[in-house]
Amino acid sequence: MHWPPTQRDFEPLRETLAWVLERSPFYQRSFSAAGIRIGDLASYDDFRRRVPRLAKAELVADQRAHPPFGEFVTVPRNRFGSVHTSPGPIFIPRLAEERGGTPVLKEAIKAMGVRPGDVAHVTLSYHIMPGGLRLHRAFEEAGCLVINGGTGNSQLQIEVARAWRATVYAGTPSFLANLADTAKQMGLDPRKDLSYRVGFSTAEALTPPLRRELHDTLGIELFDHCGEAQIGPLAGECKVHEGMHLHAADLFCEFLDPESGAPADLGGIGEIVATQLGPRALPLVRYAPGDAFRLLKEPCPCGDESLRIVFVGQVGVIRKIKGVLVHPAQVHKVMSEFPELGRFQIIVDHPEGQRYDRAVLRAGTVQPIADADAFKQRLAARLKAQVLIQMDIDLVAEVDVPEAAAGPRFTEAMVDRRHS
Q1: Is 415 left (phi over 0), alpha (psi -120 to 50) or beta?
Q2: Given this model, what pLDDT does residue 419 score?
């Protein structure tokens, strides 16, 4: 799929919409209320402007009102092949022929250099949540032996991974760090006694310091990936490790400016809105989970022409500063490079008589800083390079920064005084 979408990209979407409208009571009612007919949607712009978005709260509310699966479903219950559950809870039935993202995951696994015969240690939850089972299926189809590790039981997992000589790790980076610590407590050398070569990192942020730490400790090359419980796998890193390639072949993905709703520009930040392609037991049309991504402009040196994206964070705390959309998670990523720093706040105002907005980073310190001026210059330069705006730096004790400013929610990390 291209961004912005071409007419050729749009045609499979029209076919999916026609199939869904024949079968889903929810969408029949939704399209009728909006006065939409499939024949009226001649282009992507028609689709974007006329078809309403779907929020997760609407899906939850519909399943509560019409338990257990709601009015989205397109087939009777005896046609379900399986049912997944995600937080809410939201019930996600699958047709027997639905692939559940497996082909996409196989491509992502291949891009990591995973080979048939590798031993994959999957440590995502297999209980209720779909993530562990999705990855398990994909690694099996890629020709791997698979350890269904799940979560917890760190010592037993180390014993099994060591006995099987697991070469591939799949799970959160923090649990991999936990496994490395557990191995040391067991008197093992993680780099020598474990055989991990590559890692499928997902479900939480993989910061540069954590990536380096895990490489130094285990000798592992980690590949960052992202997805969402309802829509499945979305994107993953190649060996260049500069953004994640959009590999969602079974999704029609939009990236929209969080303020205007217009298609985001390459190089900018866009909120993802996804429509599932093909027959689904519970189809999602223009589903908006609230996640924002930066769209990388330059082609990837690896030769893969698919769009590259970088996860930014939840849409609710994004602010436009000096014409650039900024999320606190972008700043947090830079701050994590400096062990002297902890929580932070971004104060945005528009000084009277000045042409431009001003952004001040109140950086909470957790260690003494010898040369404060030089440190602030280094921090400001990194922020400029990564967040694309100039910020003034104010070093304060971390205790002076509200705890609610911390991630992952960053509730009080952005203070906008421009309209006060």
Answers
A1: beta
A2: 66
Q: What is the 3-state secondary structure (H, E, C) of 102-146?
A: HHHHHHHHHHCCCCCCCEEEECCCCCCCCHHHHHHHHHHHCCCEE
Q: Which residues pair with 251 in a beta bridge?
A: 276
332 and 407 Cβ atoms separated by less than 8 Å: yes
Strands (DSSP E) found in 369-413: 392-397
For 63-66, the CB contacts below 8 A with 24+ separation are 63/88, 63/90, 63/91
Rounded to 5 degrees, what angle do the CA atoms 133, 137, 143 make?
145
Name the stretches of the chain with pLDDT < 70: 355, 419-420
Beta-carbon contacts of residue 405 (< 8 Å; ≥ 6 apart): 328, 343, 344, 345, 411, 412, 413
- Distance of CA 54 to CAs 42, 220, 254, 313, Å? 21, 39, 13, 19
User: Which pLDDT value is given to residue 127?
Assistant: 79
Q: SS in 3 state form for 190-248? A: HHHHCCCCEEEECCCCCCHHHHHHHHHHHCCEEEEEEEECCCEEEEEECCCCCCEEECC
Place of tokens 């519970």: 282
pTM (predicted TM-score): 0.82
Q: How far apart are CA 115 and CA 222, in angstroms?
A: 16
Give pLDDT, residue 325: 78
Could you tell me the domains of the chain?
Answer: 318-416 (3.30.300.30)
Helices 7-23 and 25-33: crossing angle in degrees, nearest 10, is 110
